[in-house]
Amino acid sequence: MNQNAALREMIESSKNIVFFTGAGISTESGIPDFRSPGGIWSKMAPIQFQDFLSSEEMQRESWRRKFETDKTMKIAKPNAGHYAIQRLIETGKASNVITQNIDNLHQVSGVPHDRVIELHGNATYASCLSCNTRYELEVIKQSFIVKGELPVCKFCGGLVKTATISFGQAMPIEPMQKAEEAALSCDLFFAIGSSLVVHPAAQIPLLAARNGAQLVIINREKTPLDEFAHIVINTEIGHLLSEVTSY
Question: How many Cβ atoms are within 10 Å of 26's Cβ, its own excluded?
């Protein structure tokens, strides 16, 4: 039996699939990843959270980068991989998508918001770091571009930042707990398009495997968890997922 046939059989026999997705699923939508050669961090170093908090210059640089990268993110659409996952969620075959991505493409593809567990936040809006009030980006953009104003919370005066987790910022407790619960409840766990080197998120596929779930890793490159997987496939994601999930 070839790997595609084996994957299809695993999906058909599974009672609860959980997906874990990284940047690799969204590169096929035109969104650059971070770590690969030519990726975002090969061109500019990430801004540390403490630097954002302490430096107006870093706050300005952070927003400048945000509105520059939005030129790509705003035109990105879900691809075949996103829609394959959405179909399995819709039919009840899969229960959750745990994602390291901040692009909102799983939700745009039709996955209900309460089925998407975002480990690193969401780049499509901003929030106050003190009181968590949500702010829409277009208003912030106009004030920043036209007037040079940095966003400040109108309720508490706190710093406003994109609703993403920066380097050095504490991981959100609730999404991590939900991700661990999902990993422990599934019988088939797909890790897709992730380098599986960012911790603690990278421990979640291993948690599922150690709890008895079959682990499938689909990524263009090798990962540190390949030895724990039942199947590892190094290929493009969208075409493969479409093929093994079509009935």
Answer: 26
Spell out the long-range contacts of 31-37 with Cβ–Cβ below 8 A and sequence spacing 24 or more. 31/72, 31/73, 31/76, 31/103, 31/105, 32/72, 35/195, 35/197, 36/221
Alpha carbons within 13 A on the beta-carbon side of 216 = 26
Q: What is the pLDDT of residues 59-76, one digit of tens each?
A: 999 999 999 999 999 999
Over residues 155-162, mean pLDDT: 98
Give span(s): CATH 3.40.50.1220, the chain.
1-31+78-120+171-247
Please tell me which residue in 120, 199, 230, 239 is annotated as part of the active site. 120
pLDDT beyond 60 at 35 = no
Contact (Cβ atoms closer than 8 angstroms) between residue 193 and residue 25 = yes
Residue 234, C-beta contacts closer than 8 angstroms, at least 6 positions apart: 219, 220, 221, 222
User: 1-31+78-120+171-247, which class in CATH?
Assistant: alpha beta
> How many whole angstroms separate alpha carbon 222 and alpha carbon 14?
25
Is position 82 annotated as part of the catalytic site?
no
Round to whole Å and give the CA distance between 180 and 193.
19
Find, among 244, 223, 241, 242, the residue nearest to 232 by Cα: 223
pLDDT at residue 41, as a whole number: 47
Per the CB < 8 A criterion, the answer to whether 218 and 7 are in contact is no
Cα–chain-centroid distance for residue 6? 26
| 33-75+123-164 belongs to CATH 3.30.1600.10 | yes
**Chain centre to alpha carbon of residue 208:** 18
Look up residue 96 and give its two tokens: 């959750």
